[in-house]
């Protein structure tokens, strides 16, 4: 631990070496900072907040890869725009996937999860979508913030409707190392064009008086079964806000209800409330949508009872493509950190890819349904 303490104190002393030493000693003893490596690239991962550095921050000799800031959500679109957006802003698609930060570290380009782990799947596949060598050779101090989405991802069963198979990468922000500053939207668009980066869909430039235009856009995205929008002011350092479609709220409830007991009660109540806000404001047929919401909550729980009665565990099935067999093993090691079990059904070479099929098994949800069907009692 002394070697780690010396390195951390020497590089990140918060302006005072003695004070910095005390901060890092406390962080190490409380397991807030973890030493990690990947193919000769060494770094530290923050497992909890340390002073001004948030969980998921990556520390290395080449700089700090800050945790990505959470975007505030609004539940009333018009009033949210009026209250939070004072000047011109761009509206972009909120893509239904998972979040990574891609950065250069010790001569390697790695994709980091929100928790600061190297994501084996994203690291394995990103070169197919992004010219990482050129971008980071010319911009070593920048970090690409991306969403990875599609039915071939290893984490989420949800997927945008316009991706029929496999996955796609979407650059939705570009961040500076050390400061964590997000580049202004216009500068990001310029870099996306210059380097041919895959960006999220941009719906145009709006003003605070354009709430009706944004509302019509949200209604279209709802019909198209897409997740929502992110509104990003033109100025540097401005605060972003996001708004999610009623479809997405109800779809999340349908997916989550299958694994009931593996998600917190707040997961359900928050989405029910947000769906109610958006249905009222958008003027949608509340009765038909309420029926969809009820079906999303009830039908999956009825269906998994049949699975359990048939002797099967409640699970989610994933089919993915990867190039490097070493990264496949790394992925499953990474997935073991989650509170669910992993069962690999198949793994075979097909052309340039390895095709892997596996299941995430939800023991807690299975046990809850099984005990309920057996007549067990519980206290509520």
Structure write-up:
- The protein has 380 residues and is α+β, with helices and mostly antiparallel strands.
- The protein folds into 4 domains: 2-61, Nuclear Transport Factor 2, Chain: A (Roll); 72-244, DNA ligase/mRNA capping enzyme (D-amino Acid Aminotransferase, Chain A, domain 1, 2-Layer Sandwich); 247-307, Methane Monooxygenase Hydroxylase, Chain G, domain 1; 315-361, Alpha-Beta Plaits (2-Layer Sandwich), CATH 3.30.70.
- The protein is built from 12 helices and 16 strands.
- The chain has helices at 2-11, 17-29, 77-84, 120-125, 132-138, 185-195, 211-223, 246-258, 265-282, 286-309, 325-335, 363-373; strands at residues 33-38, 41-46, 58-60, 63-65, 72-73, 89-94, 98-105, 108-113, 142-149, 168-176, 202-206, 228-233, 241-244, 315-322, 341-350, 353-361.
- Helix 3 packs across helix 7, helix 8 runs parallel beside helix 10 (286-309) and helix 10 (286-309) crosses helix 12.
- The mean pLDDT is 93.
Concise account of the structure shown:
The chain is of the alpha+beta class.
* N-to-C order of helices and strands: HHEEEEEHEEEHHEEHEHEEHHHEHEEH
Classify the beta-strand content into a percent band.
25-35%
Question: How does CATH name the architecture of the largest domain?
Answer: 2-Layer Sandwich
Low-confidence stretches: none
Radius of gyration: 22 Å
The CATH C-level class name of the largest domain: Alpha Beta
Helicity level: 25-40%
Mean pLDDT: 93
Number of strands: 16
Number of domains: 4
User: What's the main sheet like?
Assistant: 5 strands, mixed
CATH topology of the largest domain: D-amino Acid Aminotransferase, Chain A, domain 1
Content-based structural category: alpha+beta
- Which term fits the overall shape? globular
Give, in spatial order, the strands making up the sheet with the most strands.
5-13-12-6-11
State the CATH superfamily name of the largest domain: DNA ligase/mRNA capping enzyme
The N- and C-terminal alpha carbons lie at a distance of 46 Å
Number of helices: 12
């Amino acid at each position: 631990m002394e070697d780690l303490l010396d390195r951390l104190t020497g590089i990140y002393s918060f302006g005072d070496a003695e004070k910095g030493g005390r901060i890092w000693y406390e962080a190490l003893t409380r397991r807030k900072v973890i030493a990690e490596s990947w193919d000769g690239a060494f770094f530290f991962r923050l497992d909890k907040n340390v002073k001004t550095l948030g969980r998921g921050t990556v520390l290395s000799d080449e700089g700090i890869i800050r945790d990505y800031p959470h975007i505030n959500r609004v539940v009333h679109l018009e009033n949210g725009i009026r209250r939070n957006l004072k000047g011109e802003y761009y509206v972009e698609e909120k893509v239904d996937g998972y979040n990574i930060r891609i950065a250069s570290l010790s001569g390697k380009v790695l994709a980091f999860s929100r928790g600061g782990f190297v994501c084996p799947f994203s690291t394995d596949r990103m070169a197919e979508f992004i010219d990482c060598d050129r971008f980071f050779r010319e911009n070593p101090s920048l970090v690409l913030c991306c969403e990875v989405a599609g039915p071939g991802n290893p984490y989420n069963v949800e997927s945008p409707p316009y991706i029929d198979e496999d996955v796609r990468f979407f650059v939705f922000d570009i961040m500076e190392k050390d400061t964590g500053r997000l580049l202004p939207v216009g500068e990001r668009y310029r870099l996306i064009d210059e380097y041919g980066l895959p960006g999220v869909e941009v719906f145009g430039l709006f003003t605070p008086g354009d709430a009706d235009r944004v509302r019509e856009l949200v209604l279209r995205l709802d019909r198209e079964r897409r997740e929502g929008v992110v509104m990003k002011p033109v100025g540097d350092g401005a605060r972003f806000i996001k708004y999610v479609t009623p479809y997405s709220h109800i779809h999340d409830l349908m997916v989550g209800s299958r694994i009931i007991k593996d998600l917190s009660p707040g997961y359900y109540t928050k989405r029910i409330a947000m769906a109610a806000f958006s249905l009222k404001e958008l003027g949608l047929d509340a009765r038909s949508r309420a029926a969809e919401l009820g079906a999303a909550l009830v039908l999956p729980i009825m269906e998994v009872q049949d699975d359990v009665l048939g002797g099967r565990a409640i699970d989610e099935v994933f089919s993915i493509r990867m190039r490097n067999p070493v990264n496949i093993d790394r992925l499953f090691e990474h997935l073991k950190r989650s509170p669910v079990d992993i069962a690999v059904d198949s793994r075979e070479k097909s052309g340039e890819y390895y095709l892997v099929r596996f299941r995430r098994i939800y023991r807690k949800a299975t046990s809850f349904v099984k005990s309920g069907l057996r007549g067990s009692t519980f206290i509520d």
